[in-house]
Description:
By secondary structure, this protein is an alpha/beta fold. The protein has twelve helices and eight strands. An eight-stranded parallel sheet has the order 7-6-5-4-3-2-1-8. Substrate binds at residues 12-14, 182, 222, 243-244.
Amino acid sequence: xxxxxxxxxxxxxxxxxxxxxxxxxxxxxxxxxxxxxxxxxxxxxxxxxxxxxxxxxxxxxxxxxxxxxxxxxxxxxxxxxxxxxxxxxxxxxxxxxxxxxxxxxxxxxxxxxxxxxxxxxxxxxxxxxxxxxxxxxxxxxxxxxxxxxxxxxxxxxxxxxxxxxxxxxxxxxxxxxxxxxxxxxxxxxxxxxxxxxxxxxxxxxxxxxxxxxxxxxxxxxxxxxxxxxxxxxxxxxxxxxxxxxxxxxxxxxxxxxxxxxxxx
Length: 264
């Protein structure tokens, strides 16, 4: 990554940790994250618990104020209010969070979310001052068929459309090859670097050089403290969206390794 872009390490807890467990885990890792984040200004962390646990984690964050340590939601709907049982509106999320994950492969695969729906959510998030982390990535079948570039191009062009110039600079993209999520088969740094370079090129075509340079691209897919340095060494990778390892103290070590890589 370049020094001009602040790195992001985001932890997606998925459907784990109810309010009590989320609170206790937050109290375990936040005091350890504090010294790291205070020691290095060019990195930030975002904790993304399940919706039911947002209040619990918010309370811990408020009790242990830490620079550049923020709260994020895992999903939201694009409508402001109404008869949408089980959904969260952008204004609800923005009361507690700075960030929202959108279009995660699990949302696309299990709940049928399309590029167009993800785009509506991203536009709604930006309207309410939320930082959207928009996830894209190819399946194993697409990867093995050599269709990675085709899939990525389509997802970027449709999931990330219609942004105003300022909005385009606020978006974060997470490249998550679906075949590497939770499988232990993380892509190599070189492979992830090639795809993230393509993403930045496509974004440049859509929104220009300034927006492309400001865009932060995260890698996600079996990220651990053992491989994070390999990904962070890539020019177009600006951080990680961490799944399973974000549920363990290893998340702190991932932040530590990221800082070491950026300082080297």
